[in-house]
Write a structure and sequence with these properties.
By secondary structure, the chain is of the alpha/beta class. The protein is about 50% helix and about 15% strand. The longest helix is centred in the middle third of the chain and has 21 residues.
């Protein structure tokens, strides 16, 4: 969808979500934004309004199924949603040890339930209209489990495969589905990484790539290509060949 006029972006208070909101903000566009930090979300909303967009911005926990459903239906009642970007997500590492059960459950809940809570309130309405687009934020980490971030990798793998399957199911109903698989992008998440991140991108550059991919309804928006190629090779090779290499790689703290 080249020029969506009504968009929902979750996780819009910082990073890629904020950059996407600013990238789509223009006169005639309705943006509905959610995020975890009220002050940062309000700042993003004001910048989008300054660009001419009509903006609704509310702090909602993506894991709140009923709250998300009520909010999304209200947004859709006011301006039928053309494009949903389910971007909300969290990350954390093991600090070189073993991930705690509490942390793993929290990451899986936010990153998977948050996507489901964003998609399903709008999906029947898009089906009734026989139009719309859904974009799900996965990751290059969705293609191979990396030591140091087991729950994060698992959550993004689930999101990617869910989106790929949903794309096939909805292909005949006029609804596009894309999965977004970024490498390292400057954000509050990557700011916590204490190691070198190859091909680290600015959030605005990532947003430009994503918007171009969504405009052509790409099945995958996977970037940057050197990281995508390296991860594709890691996923292709037998784990026994690559376990030793990955065991020596830096771990997320």
């Amino acid at each position: 969808m080249r020029r969506p006029r009504s968009l929902v972006i979750t996780g819009a208070s910082s990073g890629i979500g904020a950059a996407l909101a600013l990238r789509y903000a223009e006169p005639g566009v309705c943006l509905a934004l959610t995020g975890r930090d009220a002050a940062r979300l309000a700042a993003v909303a004001e910048r989008c309004r300054a660009a001419g967009a009509e903006v609704t911005a509310d702090v909602i926990d993506a894991t709140d199924r009923d709250g998300m459903a009520a909010w999304l239906r209200g947004v859709d009642d006011r301006a039928p949603v053309d494009l949903l970007i389910a971007n909300a997500g969290i990350s954390a590492g093991t600090g070189g040890g073993v991930e705690s059960e509490e942390q793993a459950r929290r990451i899986l809940s936010v990153n998977i339930d948050g996507v489901l809570n964003s998609v399903y309130p709008l999906l029947p309405r898009m089906q009734d209209r026989r139009r719309g687009q859904i974009a799900l934020m996965a990751s290059q980490a969705s293609f191979r489990g990396f030591p140091g971030a087991p729950a994060y990798c698992a959550s993004k793998a689930a999101v990617r495969v869910f989106g790929e399957a949903l794309r096939g199911d909805l292909a005949g109903e006029g609804i596009g589905v894309s999965v977004i698989c970024p490498g390292f992008v400057k954000s509050r998440i990557t700011d916590a990484n204490g190691f070198s991140m190859p091909f680290l991108m600015e959030a605005d550059a990532a947003a430009r790539v994503i918007r171009r991919g969504l405009a052509r309804n790409a099945a995958r928006v996977s970037f940057p290509w050197p990281v995508a190629a390296a991860v594709w090779l890691l996923a292709l090779l037998p784990p026994g060949w690559t376990d030793g290499l990955l065991a020596r790689a830096p771990k997320k703290g």
